[in-house]
Amino acid sequence: MYAAAEASLRMLSEDPGAPRRRVVLAAEMPDAAVEHEARHADGVARVTVRGGVPYKKLRSAHLDDTDAAADIAEAAAEPASEAAEDHELMWFAVQEIRYLVEESQT
After folding, report:
1. Tens digit of pLDDT for each residue in 23-63?
2. Which residues pair with 63 in a beta bridge?
3. Is the N or C terminus of the chain more exposed, i.e. has fewer CB atoms within 10 Å?
4. How far is CA 35 from CA 11, 15, 30, 43, 51, in A?
């Protein structure tokens, strides 16, 4: 989860127009749909998904509270910043994702 949150932060740094919230979607994918990468020095095993992730494979969504936006913006602008470290991602059930999308569009 932490590695995915860091990757989300890197993506935010590349897109200044995106809302300043990290987003991580957890999915359960069959082995044939992923490439297993070697375990990294930080001890985290990472995978790359081949192709799209069907909605029915999603298991949860995790994102920052809107109150974290200023700290996430700081962390996205300055990779050495530890501003995002005080913010845990909130957990949402798959059924709630549509409400999160609607909220972000208003």
Report:
1. 999 999 998 999 987 666 777 777 889 899 999 999 999 99
2. 23, 90
3. C
4. 21, 26, 11, 17, 11
The answer to whether the CB of 20 falls within 8 A of the CB of 73 is yes
Find the domain containing 41 and state its range: 2-104
State the Cα–Cα distance between residues 106 and 101, nearest whole angstrom: 9
Three-class DSSP category at 98:
helix
| Helix, strand, coil abundance in the chain, percent, nearest 5 | 45, 20, 35
Rounded to whole angstroms, the maximal C-alpha distance in the chain is 41
Alpha carbon dihedral 35, 38, 42, 44, in 10-degree steps, equals 40
Q: What is the pTM of this model?
A: 0.83
